[in-house]
Model the fold of this input.
Amino acid sequence: MKPIDMGLSTESAIYFHTASAQARQMFFCLMCTGHYYCDNNYAVSRNKYDSYLIMFIKRGQGSVTIDGKSMSFSAGQAVLIDCYKPHSYKAHGDMETLWIHFYGNTSREYCDYIVSRSGNVITLKDTYSFENKLNKIYTSFSTNTLLSEAVISQYITNLLTALITFAGEVRPSYSHSETIEETIAFICDNINRNISLNELASRVSLSPYYFTRLFKKETGFTPHEYIITARINAAKFYLKSSRYPVKEICFSCGFTSESNFCTSFKKVVGMKPSDYRERFSDTSL
Done:
């Protein structure tokens, strides 16, 4: 249908979608999608709109204001807005955008994560792939070949993932994320041996203090907490799926003593390893 907003040409179109009750419980859901051809009169200002907005700027430029902070955007960039908060955006001259409003159970977590690392305006490494995903959603409505709600959810997930993984590498936080990912991979490969904080920090050429702060910021765990949790998760797997003695599992997962293992396990899981095995083990073994 044709939108009624000021500053849009007759080529512009918008399509609305009402998600099923099941989709609202399970998926990311589309509220509406559009392809807008804007002029200098196009401007949107809201106190609240119950959704999240992804815009891809195909042509032209504009600006967005959130929490009193104004940011410019231009062709080839994506804009992500938590529309539950006061916000506004406008075109600066002729501008073409492809966009969706969406919602879903983990939308806020995705949005907060992306904005905290890349901001609301994101320069993409792969504009073709991102635009293509948005276009598939829009085209399914404009051509009346509607996608299933599960597929729409998948495309929205792909877009959000792209905003995380395709963000420009010039931002320090992106490099930090890669550093922590490499550290986590190292921990997983060496979970059965002693791993010190100094060893982890020296591998990435950081001081132990700064590395600990960075690791905590990226994962929510200190390095020590992460190592203990990873070891206990490995132990839970063997307790559930094998008949190995508790003592053997303890040392195989990197604990230095059985008493230390049992104390740590109970603190994290809430029960002793033997009780966990009795309750959750695969009886077919």
In short: The mean pLDDT is 91. The CA atoms of residues 198 and 208 lie 6 Å apart. DSSP finds eleven helices and ten strands in the chain. The first strand starts at residue 13 and ends at 16.
